[in-house]
Structure formats: structure tokens, C-alpha cells
Protein 1
Amino acid sequence: MRKLRPHFVYNKRQRNGVFCFMLLLVCIQVGYYLYVNRIQKIELDRNEVAYLNKKIDSLKLLRSVTKKRYPFNPNFITDEKGYALGMSVLEIDRLLAFRSDHKWVNSSREFQEVTKVSDSLLGVLSPLFLFPAKKKPRKTTSAKLRVYKSIVKKDINKTTALELRKVYGIGEKLSARIIKYRNRLGGFSEMSQLHEVYGLESKVVKEILKYYKVFEPPVLEKHNINTASFKEILSIVYMDYATTKLLFRYRDSVGELKNLEEIKKIQGFPIEKYHRIALYLRAE
């Protein structure tokens, strides 16, 4: 033991040196442990990011597939569909005004002439247009010529449910539903409003257009947007609670609306319904 003792006896400088050496070893071990853990964490983060990117790409692909558009007849574009296709309110109004005179768009060029859409938008929409094939006139002899009675159209705002049932495709429920919606509107201002009747298909609307039209737009009660109550605005067919709340919040912020078109500036306001809502409002 005495021979080994000198090996374990140190002076103060030697003890400090051994302590510093041990402290250095501990620091190296801790640094190495932290470095390895960081590398592993970075690798895990990279794998997670790659997985999330792959997930996002698959969701984008799924979204593009579900948004596939199908061919349609542009003569029956409604406010909502036109807005979804990228048309402006003015362009939609031009088409609806053209159709209100029972005129038909028969080509992509005629569609652009009526709506004034840009060439770029027409290039996107025209491949989706589906126009009905024109029927070839039958060759008939003078003996087989038929005399057809000219159809005298009636005012859609004065017809009854019983008379509407004479139109092909309209039964008891649909005729009652049309009259009920007409009463809610205060009268049809445009024939295109028939597309808003629940359950009424476009082909049935086409049949109605053969026999009915709006001879005189109804005289609707217009609410002063600056003085009307919340309940009065909410009573408008095209207004819901959320939209009415947005309108009143904007009115409170500006104090008074000088022009009705100011409501188009309201964030979240359904611009595609503006020309319908405007039938029931005025700014004074």
C-alpha cells in the first residue's frame, strides 16, 4: 500500500489540473449528446415536412378533381353560376336583360357580343358551352302543311296556380310553390327569378317562358336604407341575418349612405345579389 500511495497523493496544482481535465471530459460528453439529439430532431422535422407536403399535394389534386366543370347551356346562367364562373355583375346583368326579351345566345361569339366578357374569360368558358343542335326543317308537301296557332303569352304576375298546371312539367306542388314565391317577392320583376324557385328545373322554366312573360314589373315597396329598421331589411327575400348585420354595421360606421351602390364596398356582402336586393332599397 505504501508503494501505491505516492501515486494518489497530489499537490494543489495537480489536483486542479485533474479537476479541469475531468470537467473538460464532461463538457465534451454533454456537447456530443446535444449535437446527436439535434441531428436526429432535424431529420425527424425533415421527414415530417416531407409528409405534410405530400399530404398538401394530394389535397390539391383532390380539390382540382372535385371542381371539374361540365358542359352547360350559357342561356341559363344564373347570378350564382355566373359569379362562380368569374363573370362580373354587369356582364351577368347584360345576359339576363338579353334573355328577358326571350332571345337566345347561339354561339360563343354572340355570347361575347351580349355580355362583353374579355377574350381571356371567353377562352376559358367557351369550351364548356353546350348549345342545342338545330333541328333540320322537315320537307313537307302542301297537302301536309300544318297550321299552328300563335301562342298568346300571359302575364306571369296575374296567372293562377291552376293555369300554371297546364304547362308541361308543372304539377300541383310546383304551381303552388311558384305562386308562393311570387307573393314573397311582391311579384316577378324578371322571368329569370323563376330559376330561384326551389325544385323548378331549367327545362321546366323554358316551357314557362313559352306561355308567360313580365308585361309590367311590379311596384315594389323600397325601404330607405338610412332609416329602415333591422326587421324591415331582414324581411327582403334576398337578405339573411348575417348580411343584414353587415349592412347595419356599415351604416353605423359611415352615418349615412349617399348612394345605394356603397353597399358593394361592404366586406363579405354578396355582390352577385346586389341588383336583386336593390329592387327593394333606396338611399335618401
Protein 2
Amino acid sequence: MSRPKPIGFSKEKASRVLGEKAVDVLIASSPENVFYTCGLPVRAAENNPILFALSNQYPTIVAVYKDGSESMVTWALYNATLSWIEEVQGILTPEHAMDTIIPLIKKHGFERGVIGIEPLMPYYQYEKLRKAFPDAKFRVSDDLFMDMRISKSKEEIKRIKESTRIAEKAIEVMVENVAEGVSDFDFLKIAKSIVIEEGAAGVDHVTLAIGNSDPEAPGTGVKMKPGDITRFDIGAIYRGYNSDVSRHAFLGEVPSGIQEAFDAAVEVQKACVDAIKSGADPKEVSKAAQDAWQAQGRKDPVFITLHSIGLQTEEFHWLDPMRGVSPRKFVENAVVDIEAWSLHSNVGLVGNEDTYVITSSGCERISQLDMKIFIV
């Protein structure tokens, strides 16, 4: 059986990133970074998420060396040829995993090197590494993984596009079912079933509101009534990659204040699209967005979030209301989610959210849904 090709991981990119940050070996231990560096189905949503379910007993760990080569340990009973990594050893306990990965790192000659680890690495793994390599320097290295992951390969973009199509299909079917008496339980069932039927492995999130219900905690039994606005914010997981799309539907005539706020949010999105390009500074994009909001005559605040999508729904934030503006510039082939919201009493957030890929010339819209409030 031939080994698969890497999905987004690149030996050349890994070697460049580790060299730039003077790290000798980078350890992947979280599901997202393990998947990225080896391709095994270690995520919570897979055809069979057995490696995730049993990760407390049989952890998969990947070591990436400064020349871009890799070593991996994983459950001894799993078919390791599903990964492109050739230096693989099977393990049967967490202790066995560490007793196996440590000699592999020594084999590559980095006992006294700089070892990059994740902040989410289990403590027992860090403790074993620290004791095994007392002369090594350890560095928390989330930035290295993001440096590798933020610019997507053609295959990654293809998967995100399909994930987005699936999420939007779920929204379309939910809109078709908007009617008096329909509950948030009904919408949850629709969203989850459509995502699976359309070929995704599972749902990443179903942010759902009816009227002024809490969108972050749906499933209270609230039912639609005339004059209610819904918020459907869906993320599917397709072959490891996520999506994030949001739309409103209104049962009845949309109040002018709500429609005007929505239209202004769309103008903010368009301003962001015009400003985003490879090398653009998020500060410049933030200013363009605020200028567009104020140009609509708005005096209220607008909440703008620009985040990367990939193996995580909110993989990296260039801009958001809580964290502010990131110094990291936009890069070609990054996938950016653009969302703009305003806050209204008895309704909550009103706005729009779409996904784009940054090309050599600007932004290409991945989302296909009409940028509107759907009226039922």
C-alpha cells in the first residue's frame, strides 16, 4: 500500500520555519498539529475517530526536525501506512510513547538542542522530555505551527471550499424550514443531518438563535413566532478542514433598523475585501472597515472579526474586538473569514459572515450564499 502525500505539511516549509526560529525539533501533540504533521485521523470528527477516543491510552506524537524530516509514534494496532511519515514506531501505553519518541529524538542528535513544544502538550509528556534532555532548551512554539499552517496548500483550500459548501447547504435547508412553531431543536437536527448527508465527517459548531435566545447555547426548546429573526452560524468538518458561515432569516417583514444595520455590515465586509491582500497590514484593514461603517452614517459600534480558517474554525485572529489588531500581516493562500456585527436589544447581534482565500491579486470569495437576510 502506497503512502499518502502530505495535505498541507511541506518538508521545505517546515525546514524554513524551524531554521528562522532557531528550533531544532518541534513536537506536535495536539490533534490539529498531529493531523497537520502526519495525516492520521486523530481529530474528534473522522470516519472512525478511534485515535482521538483512545488518545489518553495511545497518544500519537510527531517530532519534526529542522531539516523537515519527521518521526512518529502511534497506537501499535493502527495502520501507520495511512501517514506519509516513514519513521514510525508503535506504542501501547502513554509511558511507552515517551520511551519511544525520546530515543528517536536522540537518534537525530538533538539532546542538547532547542525543542519546541505546544502549550497544550500533556504535562506527563513535557516532564518526560525535560528529564530525558536536561541540557536542551524548551520553547513554547505555537507560532511555528501557525507559520506553517496559515498559508494553505491547494488541497487544503479545496477541502475548505467543500466544507463551506456543505455548511451553506445546511443553512439553506434551515432557511427553507423557517416557520411558526419550529424549535431550535428542529434546526439543530436539520443542521447536523444535512452536514453528514452532504459528505462531511461532522459538525464543528451550530451557533443558533431564535429571537433573543442565546446563540452559543441552543437547544432550550424556544420556538419561532412571527417577527422573530434567526441566526444560523454553521461550521462543517470535511476531511479534517473546517468552515464558518452565518446568515439570518426573518419570519415576517424585517424592521428598517435591522435591515439598515445588516446592509452596513455587508459594506464593512466589502471594504475588508478591497483592503486585504498579501502583505497587507491588519491595521490598514481595520481602518478601512471602520471608515466604511461610519460612511453608512452609523454612530453605534461595529464588531469586526477577521480570522483564519483551516484545521480550526478560528485558527488565528488578525482582528477581533477582544484581542485587538495582530501584527502578523496577511499572506497569500491564507483563508480568511470576515464577519461584521452590530448589537440590537431584544435581537442580539445582527450581521454577516463569509469566507475568502487570499490570492496574488486580492481576495476570492469562497462563500456562495446571497449576502442578505432571508425573508420567509
Protein 3
Amino acid sequence: MAAKAKALVGMTYAIGGIMDDTHLAVSVPPKIAIARFVGEAKGNSSHFINQIVKPNFEFYWQDEYSMLSFGGKNLPALARYIQNQKSHHAGGNLIAAMEKI
């Protein structure tokens, strides 16, 4: 996902997740619609998993996604939250705004 973000001239700050939940903190260039950016990032990662990592695995993303806007001042806390997804989910200490609950 970071490679696709870079190819689309985006800047990736953090990627993290668990089995069925992935979070990505990224700056999306204003000339690219967020829906296009998300679609290409999801499509690229699906192709990578299905063709390279686990051929014929049939990995796919759900149709929906959530997007939050945040300022640079909040970036360090957001990146830490994303990088610690496993412990947040295991401990049940989730931030509702960051999760689709």
C-alpha cells in the first residue's frame, strides 16, 4: 500500500492492522479523488497478495472504507495508534473515531 501511495504521489506515515482491519495514515494529493486513491491502494494490495504472496488465495477488500481528516499536530499520536493496532484490539482500548464500530 505504501508503494502505491508513493506512485500516486502520496505520503505514507503509518500502516497497521489486524486480520480484518487495516489503517493507513497518508497524505493524498489534492489532484486525486480520495475514492480513486483508496480504490487503487486496495486493488494494488489485493493483486500483490493474490498473485505474489499467496496465489489463488482469493483475498479481497470489503467495498466500504472510512476516511478521517487530521492535522499535522495530531500525526504522531495517530501514527502510534495505527502502529499499535494489534494491542489496541487485543486490549479492547479502541478509539471509537478511529474504528468502524
Protein 4
Amino acid sequence: MMISYDVSDPEGFAAYNPGSLKEIFATVTKHGGAIVGAGPTDAVTGTPAQTCVCLTFPDADAARAWLDDDEYAPLKAIRYGSTTNITEYIVPAL
């Protein structure tokens, strides 16, 4: 799974990262996932969002379950409320 976004409200976003990292990691792990990369993008082509996060899950259902998790919902609301240009997509494993 890939998530990209631009931070539009740095103070608000601080409640998400770094403020809620322990909870974020716990909800990802709960669904068998892991965060494998995160940070500013280094575009080879195109115009990327400011930040990209790469997560791995056992399958697409687990990734969707994480996005829809009730425990993650208030944290996701912080991320959505403090970022713009949000793209979330699931990339199937080969």
C-alpha cells in the first residue's frame, strides 16, 4: 500500500506524526502489516506529493481493514484534516 500527501497544517499533523506513532504502528501491526518506508519523496519523473508512506500487508483485504479500522479512524481523521493532495492505493504483490 502506498499513501502520499502534502502537509497543509504542520501543527495539526504533529498530533499524527510524531504524536500518534505508537498507536499508528499498533493498528498497522494488528492487520499483519508493517511500515517499510516513509518520508519526503525523491521524484524521478512527475510531480510527487511532499510525503510518501509505503506499507506492506498480507493482502488487499488486510490493507482495507486497516484503513477502515475503528481504532485507526480518529488518527486517520487527523491525517486527513492536516494534509492535502492525498492519494492512497493498494499495489498487489507479484
